[in-house]
Every structure is written in C-alpha cells, then in structure tokens.
Amino acid sequence: MSYLKLFSVLTLLAPLLWPTSAYTWPNTDTDILEAIYYQQIGYDGRRFSAFVRTCETGNNLGPGRTNSAEWIRTAYHDMATADVETGIGGMDASIGFERSRQENVGFHAFTETLLFFGDFMSARSSMADLIALGAVMSVTACTISPNRKPLFLPFRAGRVDATEAGPFGTPEPHQDLTSHTRSFEKQGFNSTEMIGLVACGHSLGGVNGRDFPEIVPAKNDSTNVDSKQAFDTNTVPKGVQLSEVITPIPLKPDNLFIAMNDGGNMTITGDIRIRIDDNLPTDSRQVFIHFKPRSPSTPAIPPVEATRLSENTTAWHPYAPSFEWWNFTTTVPASQGFESFTVEVVDDGQSTVHANGGGGFPLQTDLIPQNHLSCSSVYLGRAYLLNLTVAVRDELNFQDVKLTVPIPVRQAESVVPRFESHVLDMEKTGVLADTGYSLYTASLDVRPEHMYVTIMSYGLSGRGGARDVEVPFVLWKGMGTCPYS
Ligand code: HEM
C-alpha cells in the first residue's frame, strides 16, 4: 500500500478544512497541544512521540506489537460508531467505556493506549484530542522513508470527551459486506473510501490469534502468547467546534513568571522559543525584549538582552521542527509595570521584530501568581496539593477572587478520567507596600481514592470590581514542593 494512498485515506479521518487565521499568543485552548505535538525531545521535550519514534516502536511489548498500529486502531474504533446524520458518536474517547464489547476485542490496544495518553491529559488536552494526535503522529512515524518527507496530517483540537459509552456499531470481521458498507456509510464514507481505509489501516500491525482464532490460528508459542500475525503488507460529534490546524509557532513565549519584590519592584523572567530555520546559521544571533510599561507616563524600559539556553528542543521525526530557547529577566518598579513586549531577533546585523500580530505579546498583571510564595505536589496514591498565593491589583477592587482547580476523577467502567473543578475563595493575606498589590491565598488538598497523573492546571478569576478578569489556564509549574502530612 503506497504511503500516498495511506495519506489520502487517513486524511478522511481528519475534519474538513476551513480557512486559517493568524495565530496570536496566548491561545490557552491550543498552546499545550502545540507543545505536546512539536516539542518532542531535549529542552522541555514532551516525549509523547517517543512511543511512535518509528513505525515499529513498541516491538518490545510483544511479538508483532507496535504502538503506531495500536494507536491507529484505537482512533478508528473510537470514531467508527459515528453517525454523520445524527451527529452522534465520532471521536470522543467513548472507547474508554466500550472496551468490553465484542466489537472492541483487543486486550492491549485500547486500554494500554488510553492509559499512556492519560499522562498528557489536562483541562485543555482532552483524551479525544490525544487519540487524534496519536493517530496523526503514527502516520508520520509510518511514512518515514529515506528519500521522502514523512506525512504530517493536519491536526485540530477541541474534541470533547464523552462521559458515557456511545452507540454500538464498530464493524466486526464476521459481518458481511452489506453491513460493513452500511456501517461505513453511517461514518460518512462511501465504499471506495471504505476499501481504502480498511486496506491502508491494515497495512500496519496485525491480528492476534488469541482474540481472533477464526482469522489466524492460535499458536502454542511462549514467545508469542498473543499468536500475533502481521498483516500482509471525519468526523467529530455534533456541536464540537474544532480549532484551526495546529502548526508549529515560529516564536512563542513560555515559562513567564512575575515576582513582586520587597521594595516596590517586580521581576519578570521568561523564555522565548524560536523555531530553528536550518538554512539560517544563528551563532551570531542576538535577541532583545522590548517592554511596554503599563503606566504610559513612566519612562521607557531599556531593551533587555536575552541569553541563549545551551539545550535545544529537537524531534525524532525527520522534518519535524526544532527550537532554540532564549531566557530573559528584568526588574522594574511596580508603579511602572508591564503591559506587553515585542521580541527583536538580530541575525548578522539584520533585525526582525516579532510583535504577535501587531499588538505585542500581552502580559496579564491583574492577578499575578507568586510562585516563590506557592507550592504544588502530586503524591501518587495519596494527594493533589496546591497552596497558591497571587498578587492582586488593588485598584480593581475585586469583591471576589477565586481559584479553580480541575482535578481528574475516576469514571466507572472507563480508564479515562474526567476533570471535576474545585472552586476555592482566595483570602486576602497581606498588602505589598508601595506596589498597588495585595496578596491572596488559597489551599487545595484533595485525597481521592483513585489517582491519575495528568498535566495539572488551575484558573483564576477576579469579579465584582472595576472589571472582571479571567485567567483560564495556568500550569502547576515553577513552584516549590508542598510537603505531605
Ligand atoms: C470492516 C472494517 C474493519 C474490520 C472488520 C477490522 C477488523 C480488524 C481485526 C479483527 C483486527 C485484529 C485485531 C487484533 O488482533 O487485536 C484489526 C486490526 C487493525 N485494524 Fe482493523 N478493521 C476494520 C477497519 C479498520 C480501519 C478503517 C482501520 C484504520 C483506518 C483499521 C486499523 C487497524 C489496525 C492499525 C490494526 C492493527 C492493530 C494492531 O496490530 O495492534 N481497521 N482490524
């Protein structure tokens, strides 16, 4: 089966294209998935793709087993019960609830795939999006060849996880051609597309004789307990709005923290991730951050030169992007403050200013997490702990400052958790002299019976004052460790 054919049929699993609009930072709906997709190894590498480094990765799991085949099969079985007319079913991670069905026989593929993806779930990376991303990455891994660029299918985000099992209807091998054709019609595919999908989907992985002895004989082989034998050779549910295609962002700020200091100053630290253009040597590169003060009547803030980090972020997949990182820090009086910044990149005397679509990279300074006064911890099997202190701008006169923490909770019959929000009032605990800010604190201590390791986050809100402020998605990052007691 040719790679191009595999590409053309698997793109059918991707949603319809619509015109793209330019990305502006931050996009809290997609930034984390962009990092999971493109930051593969090295500095802040997310390692999702480590398990589909090549099409064959996973062979060590058992004879004939490969992660790419299991991930693609999981994606297909999750979406196969789609009914394009009613808009029910589709890629929604309902496979988590449907693993015991006859139509989903497969000891390894579904449970192990979902458990692996679980580590990458967050309030902004649903299991359904991760299943789709897994299929996209598997196709890239399985189309790596010495003389051609591998295939990078367009990936969009925004799928919502189901909270219960979906309809039956995944095609089974014992069914006749008419029922297969009907089932693919329901999923939105005609018979030519059905043949392409089944044939190309089955150019990866194989059948295990333990579960399907009617297709391949079960063997008594201790080195192949599954009796695995290799093969010869869009839709989302109604009401789900997918994002733009997630492409690697050329220049992206990350890890921004602002600390309020004694003496009425504030210190910002942060990283700038810059995509490496292989044709452009960057040894002589300089990067400058130009801050715009929040208070226009105050003097200009001098440009801040950033320092290149020694480690880059690279990729296992050829032609996937690599990034270099630059770190910066500066301190200004809190009365001057920060509103936004632009990034100037100078290569051999040639300067390019990155202004995030014109308005600069915005800095939110109404509710500022104080990481040096906060802590967080996930004690596996025991507790999720967060003790958060936030500097709150006094002039906004909020009546109500809240901390919202999505905690992964167990769903009966699924290995996929759902997030349940814990909403806490933040209490004023002090005034920061000469800054115009006060400190607010809240503590979360959740000790569930069943724990999951996901990417933990929180949100902040300030209401009932001069204007409402929402900070939707902040990672548990850059804080000390909360002690367990
Ligand atoms: C009439 C429709 C289909 C039927 C009846 C069917 C049936 C099967 C069966 C019986 C297996 C062996 C599973 C095992 O031994 O664990 C299998 C494996 C697989 N199927 Fe399908 N399938 C269908 C359509 C598709 C489609 C459309 C795709 C993807 C686009 C797909 C992707 C795969 C993959 C990648 C594997 C290998 C899994 C592995 O090696 O772990 N299948 N399929």
UniProtKB/TrEMBL annotation:
Any GO BP annotation: hydrogen peroxide catabolic process
Superkingdom of origin: Eukaryota
EC number: 1.11.1.-
Domain Plant heme peroxidase family profile: 51-291
Cleavable signal peptide: 1-22
Cross-referenced PANTHER family: HEME PEROXIDASE, THYLAKOID LUMENAL 29 KDA PROTEIN, CHLOROPLASTIC-RELATED
Protein name (record): Peroxidase
Lineage of producing organism: Eukaryota, Fungi, Dikarya, Ascomycota, Pezizomycotina
